[in-house]
Amino acid sequence: MAEERRLYICMRCGRVFSRSEMEILPGIRCPYCNFKIIMKVRSPMVKRIPAV
Ligand SMILES: [Zn+2]
Predict the structure, then answer these.
(1) How far is the CA of 52 from the centre of ligand 1 (A)?
(2) Which neighbouring-strand residues pair with 9?
(3) Per-10-residue mean pLDDT, the chain, length 52
(4) Within-domain flag for 39
(5) In terms of residue numbers, what domain contains 32?
(6) Domain count of the chain?
């Protein structure tokens, strides 16, 4: 019920994934390329750079 909506982005391949996807592999790393440096993303849909 209290599932977080947080997403993570890999600093290497740029993939965005959820925590459950990350838990497929042991430890904190990208499930796609095994890179260990990832960042938290709060709301990827709202993330936009103002074009002004
Ligand atoms: Zn990756």
Answers:
(1) 31
(2) 16, 39
(3) 74 93 87 93 66 74
(4) yes
(5) 11-52
(6) 1
